[in-house]
Amino acid sequence: MSERPAGPRLLGMPSAADAIELKHLRAFVAVADELNFSRAANRLFVSQPALSRQIKALESLIGCQLLRRSTHRVELTLAGEALLGATLPLLSDMDDAIALTRSVGGEVNARVTLLWNSVVEDGANGLAAMREAFEAFNAQLPIPEGTVVRPVQADGVSSLVVAPGQGPRPTVLHLHGGGYIAGSAFGYRPLAGALAAATGAAVLVPDYRLAPEHPFPAAVDDALRAYRWLLGQGTDPGQLTITGDSAGGGLAVSLMLRLAKEGLPQPGRAVLLCPALDVVDPPGGDGPVARWFSLYVRDHPATDPLLNIFEADLSVLPPLLVQCGTEDVTLPETRRFVDHARGQGLDVRFDLYPVSTHVFHLFWSFLPEAADALEQVAGFLRTDESGSAAEAG
Description:
It is a single chain. The chain is 44% helix and 13% strand. By secondary structure, the chain is of the alpha/beta class. Helix 11 links the parallel strand 9 and strand 10. Strands 3-4-6-5-7-8-9-10 form an eight-stranded mixed beta sheet, with helices on both faces. A two-stranded antiparallel sheet has the order 1-2. The radius of gyration is 21 Å and the shape is globular.
């Protein structure tokens, strides 16, 4: 496994025992209670490999084995029994404290809801109001300290390079969300900065053209030009990553299918954050998302695999990390996509987080699950070609 690039991080993680986190203890208690990793993973809404990593991290930090594992059995060691007895009261007290805090304030959920509602409500007043509200929404999110932003022309596509400091050449192409009708590279500096801080990589964010002024395939064309520009920087394609959030996740898949169609090299990996993947039959019936997507699709045949990716050959894609929240509106189509991709033999890791907000990664500055998810993105990008990137969701 390659060394992680130097640079700012979202989460400090000392190697001493004081790096033990509540997620490690909760993972341990769930496995100790179930004596089964699969059931414990379902209980915690995480993948089984992710749960196994947390247990191994806890054992490493404490310095002794807590669980004995075999093909058919999991059992506690004496050390594990001792830790379980001490941990249960601790977690109970912590749960009581959290419940009390939420009953008094509910600050995190209220803050996230307030931010997103401003976009939804203004979106009912027309396209211009929706775009303005989306930019104002992103403007309320912080940019990690030390982030350096510079403009570039990526093969004629106005773009920003967002980096965790001076100097690094961009190796991540991020396609922003916004339903194909809103969003900008400037507005997405907070999320791109968080990706850069977590991974240590510079991120290229193109201002791809938006519908309805520029319907499909304009966005795919611009994303392709930006990717060609990255290739032209001399970086090995295997060291490149394509990422996308919400509609940008769907655009990322369309771009990679376009690469295959044109015989261009795929990136080494791709990351989809709460992706909106079904532009042909989106969730919500005739709601706002369906109306936005209809502006993007226009009269283009819905059978085009660059649009209807559920009918496309996904086996040509690189290894994928897909992340979503358990109550995200995109979860049903995300699960369907993961199943479809795995059915075609694609290497897919699917991580679920117990959150309700769409693209929860945007709230990395105050939502622990978001910071953790970005750290998992960093780990996925560090996996070298000889390592396995596939994990069961």
